[in-house]
Amino acid sequence: MNQPDYQKILAQFSIDLPAKPFGNGHINSTFKVGEPPRYVLQKINTAVFTDPEGLMANVMAVTAHLRGKIAAGGGDPARETLTYLQTADGKNFYRDETGSCWRVYRFVGNSHVYEAATPALFAESARAFGRFQKMLSDFPAETLRETIPQFHNTGARLEQLRGALAQNKSGRADRVGAELEFAFARAGETDTIVSALEKGEIPLRVTHNDTKLNNVLFDDKTDKTLCVIDLDTVMPGSLLYDYGDALRFGASTAAEDETDLEKVTFDLELFRAYTDAYLESLGRSITEREIELLPTGAKLITLECGMRFLADYINGDVYFRVHRENQNLDRARTQFKLVADMENKFEEMQTIVAAAKATYCAN
Ligand code: ADP
Ligand code: GN1
Ligand code: MG
Description:
Layout: H1 6-11, E1 19-21, E2 29-33, E3 39-44, H2 52-72, H3 77-80, E4 94-95, E5 101-106, E6 111-112, H4 119-135, H5 154-167, H6 177-184, H7 192-198, E7 205-207, E8 216-219, E9 225-228, E10 235-237, H8 239-250, H9 268-282, H10 288-292, H11 294-315, H12 327-344, H13 346-360
Helix pairs in contact: 4-8, 4-9, 5-11, 8-11, 9-13, 11-12
């Protein structure tokens, strides 16, 4: 495939600076622009985000709302949320002649991300997601487009796995019998969050939906969090999705694609650090039933992510970017290992949540 003409793309945003690949995301392609970097250029993966107009409308509305809140609280919106540039003809992304969609936003200088964290840093990220949740609590959720329908509907994800298995496009299905069995054995639990939402037991909120540790920028000088990034999946959802996804990634003792499963465990110290800081920052804005379901949220979002990786492996690696063979299968296996470990530690998780509730969410 021909290299895209970065200079021509950037010229649409009136920028004349060099671009270099950047970041570890599985979906979009990211570049830093300028040396030292001044902007981030991103190609939106339109196979995943089929409605780039809707996606950018969401992101622009959410960042405008956050900017207002940050400024009102005496913060610096230029460092604490993302600022997108417009093209010369006033659009918030540029569609090139091949149909690829590109957007540009300001690089937040003197910042870094973590792929793994200590309890103290993980607690910092929890406070950032807690603040994010609170700042969006009065955002009109119904105005957001559901850019990826049923994104965190774990039951629907299980059905997608069944569909992948039935089609077996890659011919790999016979290699993953044990993993399929693991997922299908938990079919009865997959509806818990969605059905609690449907019954009105827990509130529908504006959620981030992709709360990996590497989606928070930390300040180089202070190691405090600056900014929640990667806003493409901001949609109406459950707080349990955000809590669960953060723990799935950040409370693991190994990388998401670790091949040695002995190294992959669910770390209760990290779990406690995140839970304490998250509940402290949410205080009484989190409901009783949400608190009760926190351990379930962590487990189900991890199970769901494992099912998504497994389905993509069977589909032939068409969704998540891979850098080596079997990477999606390795990712699925780490997630299922974490789920099994959470099942063993479930009572301890509940005890940690109850203690955090008593400390931070009491009347
Ligand atoms: P992806 O969807 O590929 O995960 P992200 O939006 O998370 O893309 O960006 C990928 C990486 O680029 C981040 O993990 C972070 O290291 C870096 N990054 C993204 N936005 C900024 C920014 N505004 N300032 C500095 N670094 C950024
Ligand atoms: C993808 O884009 P990135 O790498 O932040 C995925 C998430 C998964 C995650 C697993 C739009 O996130 O849902 O949890 O990979 N994003 C999308 O690492 O599907
Ligand atoms: Mg990201």
